[in-house]
Hints:
280 residues
Amino acid sequence: MVDNEKKNMRMDRKTEDDPKSPILQCKVPRGALVPEGEGRRVLNIVTLRELSGHEEDILANDKIEITSRFNQVIGRCITAISDGERTVNDSKSLGQLMTNHPFGLTLGDSLTLLFRLKEVTVGDEFRQKVICPSCKDDEGESYSWTHVGSLTDLDIVPCKGNPLEYERTFTTSRGNVIKWTMHTAAQEVEYARKKLSRDKATRSLLMRVNSINGEPVTKEALKDMAVLERSEIRSKFDEEGGINTDLTFECRNCGHEFEAPLDISARDFFNPSAASSTCL
């Protein structure tokens, strides 16, 4: 994505009358689909406030599954959502943004907002321990170092096509007609609870695919499907948009270049000073 497009997706940091309560306004890849007349309207400009101690306590609560913690925190910190003309800021409607499927915010939207929340709260810098997969240090351990980066360098990818089309259809190379629905933040919480169960690759497809050749989808139908077709289905999910969290590193010791994802589950992600404490 070119710099101008990235700037348009990010928008500007703003401040309320109280300078101690910064807010940030940004665009998300798809946005929420809110009722308007007999149809729906896309609202994709989100206003966020910084994290408070209430949200920090939620993030530190290991009794709550981490995806659910993230969704709760994002939902609490959204103060408004709009499209530049219509604005929604009542608590009831905002409360449904993270819980309403299929009209609420998508998984790509929520991940984008998670990074913007960090930015408005403690800044865009992040630190991550990186381990080289190809070499070892003088003590025989895998060589590692601490990478310092900026969230502003991550590419935000807008939703492809008409964002109002939350249910989409395509035909695989084997001729099967697949109807699927965009993955929402609400669904991700449900899926996260099942990640330790069997058949998780198939279950991830089951969360999005609605029908195959007009017949309601079943787990067995997906398991019987060729891997090639399953890969084609997953590639269509990229139409949802999102934020690219894959980072490219060059080992400081051996020069090997490799990719690794940004670790948003690290205890110090939202609070750099927490790396040596029990918080987060």
